Amino acid sequence: MRPAFPALFSAVLALSLLAGCRPDQIEHIENGKQIATTLENMAVKRILPADFLRATRWAGDSLTGQADRELRRLLAEQLQAGGVAAALPYCRPESYASTDSLALVLLATPGRLSSRPRNPQNQAPLSATELRPDTTRLIKRLTADVFEYQRPILLSDAQCLRCHGEVGKDIAAADYVLIKKQYPQDQAVGYKLGDAMGVWRVSFARNGIAEFYTMKTRKVMKPRKPLF
């Protein structure tokens, strides 16, 4: 049997070197954590099928949520300024410049559909499941490169009743004449608060969803608090 002295000597030598290395002798890299985070963010991430579906929901919520907020803001301004006549042209949030700008970034094609549309171009047969009065999302992968997001459009703002409520009760007779003049085939009336009026349906290109997922999951360094 060979003596274990060389191995024992090596272990003792390593421990001696470590013990002799004081904390004040270790040179720390400035902004080391930030550099490590930056390198991690730059690494190519593998995106799994479930991640693509999750990112489709995130992207859909972001796009349609922004459009709905802008719709409420503009309708409030226009109704106060000039009533239904002024507000009517603004009830198309899918065509807003802000919506279009975000859609370009996400490689998205947004649309709003209804079984009872104001504009017949937005006519679509929708099932009872699609028109449930809740926030149910339907997420699909249509092809290898196309994802689809869908959620109900709910009448959750009382000001919308001035154009979409009951004629003679919520909608003034003169305003309904104006609506019918602009939209002769209008069916988008008779709704109550909480009703599902239709759906947002948005298609996304795979590259747009991949980029959004990468951005959404990127680590962000918290700013350091000053010591003094």
UniProtKB/TrEMBL annotation:
Tll0287-like domain span: 112-204
Domain of life: Bacteria
InterPro entries: Tll0287-like_dom
Pfam families in the cross-refs: Tll0287-like
Residues making up the signal peptide according to the UniProt record: 1-19
Signal as UniProt keyword: yes
Keyword annotations: Signal
TM helices/strands, residue ranges: none
Keyword Signal: yes
Protein name, entry field: DUF3365 domain-containing protein
